[in-house]
Request: fold
Amino acid sequence: MLVQAGPRVLDSSRLTRAERGAPARWLGPLEQVRSCLWIPDKAGHHRWVDYQLVGMLLVRTAEAGSAWWSWDQSAWTHVIGPDAQEWSRQWPAQASRSCRPRLLAYAYLLGAPVDEALFLRFERLRLARTVFGPEIVDREVDTVHRLLRGWGYRLDTVGSRSVPTLIAHAMFLNRSPLLADIDASLLERLRQAVRSTGGLR
Reply:
């Protein structure tokens, strides 16, 4: 079915009812993930992005001859793109750039073997709000900010603006948005991740 549908697979909204029914076992978990994501305004745009995202996964499924749940880390890195340039090279111009961070969110919630270094290439605070919901993410970030201000830190400097990003990164590493779930070993993993960017300070 994927081979016969050809380019229409990339825009899964163009598939016929019979074609959409054939890979239902693949699409069910993806729809469950979508129902968990926080979708901001312009829901129509986001539906279109999700149609494209599903199409991308089906295209790679056809190429690999295996469903997404059997892909290894390198296969997921290829789909998401190790960087924006590689993303642009592998997908047509009409593919929305919004698909790339959304693909990472899907992979994360599916428990896929995603390279942790990929998160360093995305706006993690926005991604965390999408995955965990803005209310809980912003509440935990505010908690850290209040604590730092109580210790005398200024949070209006260039360096301090990365604090919310670090908190969001810790949430992803720990697979939880709750500060109470963060321990010393997680903070050390976060240190190592930041060290790899050259921005340890």
